[in-house]
Structures are given as structure tokens and as C-alpha cells.
Amino acid sequence: MKPAIAPVSFRPDIQGLRAWAVIAVLLFHFNLPGASSGFIGVDIFFVVSGFLMASIIVKGLEKKNFSIWQFYISRIRRIVPALMVLLVVLLVLGWFLLPTPDYKSLGAQSASSLGFLSNIYYWRTASYFGATAHEKWLLHTWSLGIEFQFYVLFPVFMLLLWKIKPKIKTLFWGLGGGFAVSLALSIVASSWQPTAAFYLLPTRGWELAAGGLAFLIGREVPSLQRFAKPMFWTGFTLWVVAALFIDNSLAWPSGWALFPVMGTALIIIAQQTNVKLMVNPLAQWLGNRSYSLYLWHWPLVVALYFTGLHTDWLWITAAFALSLLFGDLSYRLIETPTRKYLTAASFAKQGSVFAVTSLVIVLSAVSVNVFDLKFRGMNQSEKDQYLVHYSREKFVPLIREDYLEQCNFFDDISGTAKKHINANCTSKEGDGGVFLWGDSHAQALSFGLRKLLKENYQNTPFYQVASSGCRAHLTPDTQTSGEFKISCDRSNAYVLEKIKMLQPDLVIIAQQNRHDKNNFEDISNKLLSFGVKQVFVVGPVPEWEPTLPKIIARRHWQDDNKIEDVSFVKSLRDMDQQLVKKFDDSRNFKYFSVMSELCDGYKCLAKLDEDRTPLVFDYGHLSPAGSSYVVKNVLALPIDQVLTDQEHKPIAAAHLAP
Question: Which pLDDT does position 1 carry in this prediction?
Fold first, then answer.
């Protein structure tokens, strides 16, 4: 006889919570107006999961028939079948449609998803809100990783508490303590290590614990039902506040997540099963299918970005409708039948089915990631070879030396701040010279600058301190956190010390974006007081999301070198034009608009030659050829004027012609 799992009484309001959560997530991911806070739907899901798991475990403990292994297998029955089908569909379609770098990435993502480690995988490889998010076909499975890790540890934790003293109070105080510790860690880590705080269980566990506490409070304090309606509407109001004031610019989860989490907990405790907002046919339909809807919608979002249709409202509407259709089919044809079949099967048979199927899928996914699979048709195309060459894994190691990675205070491999950089980056080589200061986009400019100086000003010293994610700044940086902040503050303090000592003729400042948020007047005044002759501020270069080589290969392979594409980051161009006007009469520094030279409106130079060499090798870092092009066509003549004035005569002025 199979061990029993205590049944959970059906609550239609819980289905309503699931419906609200999944719709919020879909609206956010499809980038629909007014849904900028829709990612809080995942936080709602976490609270609901904590509530349901606590109810199963507590009822089982009280009846003395709780089996941890049966608990695990019931969670596997609930989650794994639909996930397996999704992975198989993506791997099969990817075989025919995805170029090698994308297909290899899909293999790694698939293996981590089925191992419920995808939250850890994406913590190391992708920001949920970053430019590359829409390249990750299985990014949304990060939340499944957190939930499953919680499912593994939570019953063990509850059993240990029950062993200490089999009382509900023991569970309550133990769960409350875990809630408090995890919340405190989340608040601290969200500003210190924001990506880790977003993706990892220790900083998300309090949200699931909140659901468990809601179950215990709702059951053990029935007198609260006198305030059921006020509690419900207070909880709903917290949701509204979250929807109005939260967006992805905030550190998350941090303390901000208390709004949706506490709101959900109050709604659960209120147990209002007759409120139309929660209990209506549409909400119940969506709630039943919420897991399948969540699974299938994100690959459709990625497909829109993959094809460049993510701004076409007709296609967005179609993809949204397909999400509902696929979610319904997955629920009716996969979730429900497999759950019924497996529930009736023996424990050993269920384990065998999952073990064998998982092994086959994981081995397939790992093979896709590890092997080149050159016999695959996609691998033999010119476009595929182009994308392989410019893939981050292949291309970045080739250019680290070109961009003087040793002059970076941030170690992008370990993700930590360095205490020191190579002394050669700022060792005095003579009087005057050029000093490059900024972030990784300044690094990308370095190649062209050094090439120009080598060809034309061989006796002119060149210095560089350019640290990843670090804008030039005079005071401790407020726009970074964690190891980035440490490296940025060290980098900028070091730069100011060295410029004061070296007194270069020219300081060139470059950064990725947000030039309008930096005070270049104050920076220039400080540098001029050190004896610097001239300060150049280089505006942003064109950016495309996710990466320019992919956009060229997908949509502009045969087009002219200048392209106009929906993936172009128009906000940068708009900001640049405003800064051209703002800094036109600046006396302390000169602002150089790269986009004014490379773009006609939103149509910008993307390919530099007949080999389709991209201006930027990813979303916006100049390729070596792009670096040389920008320096030659935007900065060469102004640099010549500065250096010639300082008696650094050019050796071959002909090279300066744009």
C-alpha cells in the first residue's frame, strides 16, 4: 500500500490567486502597457506554493502518515511531465531552427532546468531584466528551480521541528524564524549581490515561508475570520500599491517584495471564496492551467524577439493567444492524464518512469551542449559560422588582450573586485599623453586609440583604467552595488590619484549609457585643476538587443551596411541628441556624438566591410574593427589638435583622414 499524502481541501480563492499571478507574468513578459510590475506574479506563486506545501506536510504530521518520499514523488508528478514535453519540443525544433551558439545554450539550459538548478545557472549567466534575457528559451524555469529546492528542504525542516516538539507552535516559531532570517538576507543581498538575491533560495525562501505562516495563522486563529473582508481588501490594496509603484528599476526582491507577499498572505488568511475577483469561471480556468500557461508562454516571447516581431502588436496578440491555447492543451493532454496515470502506479514504477525519461532528456541536452553536431544542417551554413565566430564564448577570449583587460578593477570571470591592476596600465612613460577612463565600453575604445597613437604619435604615452560597469565619477558610486561598487570606487579613486600625478594632455571618458546622469562639468573641472589640458567625453555607440551579429544574420544578411531594426535601442539615440544640444557650448570638455557620425535617425552603421564585420560584437561593445573605425572617423582629428598643440607632432598625418 502506498504511503498517504494528506489531501488539501480545495479552495477556489487559491485558484484565483494563481490566475492573477500568471496573468501578471504574461502581461509583463509580453511587454503590454501598464504591466511593468507583472514580475510580482512569481512572488505570488511562491506564497501560494508555501501555503499548499505547509498544508500537506502539517496535516500529514498530525495524522502520523506523512511520507517524505511520497511527498517528493507527488511534486515530481505535478511538475515534471509538462516540463519534459516542453524540453523535448524545444530541443527538436532547435535542431532545425537554431544556429550553433543558440542550440548549445539551449542544451545547457535544458539540462539545468530538468535538474532544477536553472536558478543557479542563470545566476551565473544572465540577469532576469538584462538585454540577453530574451535569448534564454528557458529563463522562466529559474522559479521552478527555487520551488523544487524548497520542496526538497522544506519537509526535512518541518520534520526536524516536529521531532523537537510535535506541536503547531514549534512549527510556527521555526517557520517564523526562517522567514525573518531569509527576509533580512534578502534585503541585504538585494543591494549587495542583486543577481544572487533574485535567483537563489536563501533570499527567496521567506516568500514561500510566508505562505506556510499564512496556513498556520489561518487555521490556528479562527477568530481572525471576523476581519476576513478587511483583510482581503487590505491584501488586494497591497497588490494595487505594488502594481503602481514597482518596476524592474528597483532592487528585487528586497523589502519591496513585502507588498505582493504580504498582500497574498492576507488574501489567503481571509479565505474569501465568494469574491468575484478571485472566484469566477475565467479565474478558475486560468488558475487550473496556470502552471502550463507559465511553462509555454516564455518560449513564445523569446520567439518574438528571435524573429524581430516583439514590437508588432498583431504578432504579440497572436503569441499571447497561443500561450493560452498551448497552456490549455498542456493541462488537458499532459498534466491531467499523466497525474492520473502515475498516481495509480506503484511508487517503484513512478520512480522508474521519471528516472529513465529524465536520463534520456538530460543526456540529449548535454550532448547538444558539448558536441558540435557538425552533421546538423544549420551548422554548415555561412551564417552559422559567422555566429559561432562572434559568439561571446569564442570571441571574448580573443580580444581580452586587445582591450587591456589587465587594466580592469573588476574580474569578470570570478565576478569579484580586484584590489590592484597591472602597474603598466598607468606607469609613467613620458610627459603628457592620453588617459582613457571609464567602463567596459571604454575598454572597447582602447584598441582604436592605441592603434592611432602607435601609427601617428609613437612618443605619446597611453594610460588606461577602464573597469566593467564603472562610470567615471568623483565620489563613491550610487548606481552600482556589491562587488561592482567596490571595484568602481577603487577604480575611480585610483584614476584621480594617477591623473593628478601623470598630468596627461588629454583624458578621454567613455561609458555605456546614462551620460545624462553623470556630472561631466564637475569631473572636468577637477581634471583641469590637476593640469590636464583637455577632456573628451565620448557619447554612446549604437546598441542592438540582444546582439548585433545575431540581428545581422537573422534579418540583414544581404542588406546595406547601415540597417534600421526594431532591436535598435532608440532611447540611447534620443539621449545622445539631447546631450549634443546640452553640451554644445561646454568650455570645460568636448562632447563627441558617435551616433551623429554613424546614424541617420535610427538607421545606423552595422557592418564595416564585405565580410560583414560588425560594428559591435555583442549588444554594444565595439569590435576591434569598430573601435578603429570610431576613433578614425570621430576622434582622430580632435586628438591631433590636442596633441599637436602640445608639441607631439604626428608622424603620418595622412592616416588621420576619415
Answer: 36
Considering 378, 404, 424, which residue would you say is the last residue of a domain?
378
Residues 15-45: tens digit of each pLDDT: 999 999 999 999 999 998 888 899 999 999 9
Residues 150 and 17 in one domain: yes
pLDDT for the residue 375: 76
Q: What percent of the chain has pLDDT over 70?
A: 97
Q: Is the pLDDT of residue 650 over 60?
A: no
Q: Is 459 inside any structural domain?
A: yes
- Binned at pLDDT 50, 70 and 90, residue 405 comes out as very high
Number of domains in the chain: 2
> If you average pLDDT over residues 421-450, what whole number do you get?
94
Instruction: Name the more confident of 377 and 388.
Output: 388
Q: Please indicate, yes or no, whether residues 329 and 403 belong to a single structural domain of this protein.
A: no
In a domain, 1, yes or no: no
Last residue of a domain, one of 344, 378, 412: 378
Residue holding cell 506503484?
346
Q: Are residues 236 and 279 in the same domain?
A: yes
Q: How far is the CA of 106 from the CAs of 92, 127, 326, 366, in angstroms?
A: 11, 16, 20, 10
Nearest-10 Cα torsion for 244, 246, 247, 253: -160
CATH number at residue 629: 3.40.50.1110
Q: Are 344 and 413 within one domain?
A: no
Return the pLDDT at 644.
86
Question: Would you call 440 helix, strand, or coil by DSSP?
Answer: helix
Together in a domain, 429 and 358: no
* For the chain, counts of helices (H) and of strands (E): 26, 10
**Helix residue spans in 471-585 (DSSP H):** 482-502, 520-529, 548-555, 570-582
Angle at which helix 100-114 crosses helix 118-125, to 10 degrees, equals 140
pLDDT at 655 > cutoff 80: no
Q: Which helix (H) or strand (E) holds 604?
A: strand 603-605
Query: Has residue 3 been placed in a domain?
Result: no
Rounded to whole angstroms, what are the CA distances from 147 to 26, 197, 365, 497? 19, 15, 22, 49
- Which residues are paired to 568 by β-bridges? 544
Range(s) of the domain holding residue 596: 388-656
Both 120 and 205 in a single domain?
Answer: yes
Higher pLDDT, 623 or 8: 623
353 plus 395 within the same structural domain: no
Decide: 577 and 583 in contact? Cβ < 8 Å: no
The neighbour count for residue 292, using CB atoms within 10 Å, is: 27
Taking only the tens place, the pLDDT of each residue in 510-525 is: 999 999 999 999 999 9
Burial of 602 (0-12, 13-18, 19+ CB in 10 A): middle
Rounded Cα gap, residues 51 and 55, in angstroms: 6
CA torsion angle 442 443 447 449 (round to 10): 30
In this prediction, residue 584 has a pLDDT band, given cuts at 50, 70 and 90, of: confident
Would 383 be classed as within a structural domain?
no
For position 345, what pLDDT does the model report?
A: 85
Query: 590 in helix, strand or coil?
Result: strand
| Residue 601 to residues 64, 309, 312, 512, 582, Cα–Cα distance (Å) | 71, 21, 20, 19, 19
**Is residue 481 helix, strand or coil?**
coil
- 392 and 261: one domain? no
Of 126-135, 355-364, 563-572, give the lowest mean pLDDT range: 126-135
Residues 328, 332, 334, 335, CA torsion sign: positive
